[in-house]
Amino acid sequence: MRAAEPRVFRVSAPVRLDFAGGWTDVPPFSEREGGAVVNAAIGLRVYAEVELGGEGMLLRAEDLQEALRVSHPVELSQGERLPLHRAALRMFPVGPCAVRTRSEVPPGAGLGSSGALDVALVAALTVARGERVDPEEVALHGWQLEVIEAGLAGGRQDQYAAALGGFHLFEFRDPQVTATPLLLDPSFQEELARRMVLCYTGRSRVSGETITRVMAAYQRGDPTVVAALRRLRTLAYEMADALRAGDFAKIGALLDENWRCQQALDRGMCTPEMDRLEAALREAGALGGKAAGAGAGGCMFFLAGGDAERLREAAGRSGAELLPVRWSPEGVIRC
Question: How do beta strands 8-20 and 97-103 pair?
């Protein structure tokens, strides 16, 4: 007797810390001038499960406590709820099913969780369809899912970090993406994780409107925005060199400069909560730090000069929620 075909398919994908170069992976800058980002996947993950069968389609985001039942495929294009789930099923239909997702990071944390969700959804659905897709194809489909199919503005770094895992220098010359792994000494990676203090300050207020506003300023030739984006791209290459050299002082200084460039892009990048947190951790001995992702809330991460516990205590007194940092050499995987 033949074994029953599997009906449930589960995958997970990591979120990331962006060390330098974020925003330069976003068009039109990435199309016209080419961007560069250094990031690393971390061991906080987004999970997706596809269960085939049943009646209609049940879409559920467990961490958001949101669910949507769809009785006919045409309904996937209607409404604003769970846009990534609906876009995924439009791109990779599997018939009647339940699609369930959950995330280990808070909403709007700036850690690329929507990109990890894109990748997890694509991977789970393609596996359910019996298709073999390599990680870079999953990343590409994940970006298409969010930006083209769902119509949400953004770059490509999050999907590639989630699909590939590890430390990378990514170069973007749309539509081309070049991924260069950063092969770092294991003892340095361990010490870097020990010294990293990752703080959630509250949901990011950066939206598609903010991204559109920044890139419109770039298209107008706003000298402050143009200069900041070009410097951010250069910082990615400098950060890759500093990581390879294991130079903690240089890494801290580059994090600081990257954060100054981020704030130059839009006046709303730094919230009062972020400003207070940054001041407290600098007083506690941080070598440098920046907002994770775009800014305007979400997470900040700081590099301790030595006594990371002192920084963690200062972050707690400032009201921030501490999140663990451990590197994830694996990208998207089947559970």
Answer: unpaired
**Average confidence (pLDDT) over 280-307:** 94
Residue-wise pLDDT tens digits, 47-60: 999 999 999 999 99
Residues 198, 322 contacting (CB under 8 angstroms): yes
Would you call 200 helix, strand, or coil by DSSP? strand
pLDDT of 97 higher than 90: yes
The answer to whether residues 118 and 142 touch, using CB atoms and an 8 Å cutoff, is yes
Give yes or no for residue 78 having a pLDDT over 90.
no
- How far is C-alpha 221 from the geometric centre of its chain's CA atoms? 27
Residue that is written with structure tokens 């099923």 in the block: 89
Q: Which of 323, 24, 25, 61 is nearest to 160 (CA)?
A: 25
User: DSSP label at 327?
Assistant: B
Which tokens hold the place of 134?
């390599």
Average pLDDT in the chain? 94
pTM exceeds 0.70 for this model: yes
Mark 38-56 as b/e (b = at least 16 C-beta within 10 Å): bbbbbbbbbbbbbbbeeee
**Half-sphere exposure of residue 278: CA atoms within 13 angstroms, side-chain side:** 19
* pLDDT tens digits, 155-179: 999 999 999 999 999 999 999 999 9
Burial class (CB in 10 A: 0-12, 13-18, 19+), 80: exposed
Biggest CA–CA distance in the chain, Å, is: 70
How far is residue 158's CA from residue 134's CA, in Å, rounded to a whole number? 17
In this predicted structure, what is the pLDDT of residue 285? 96
Neighbours of 31 (CB within 10 A): 13
Assign residue 27 a region (left: φ > 0; alpha: ψ between -120 and 50; beta: otherwise).
beta
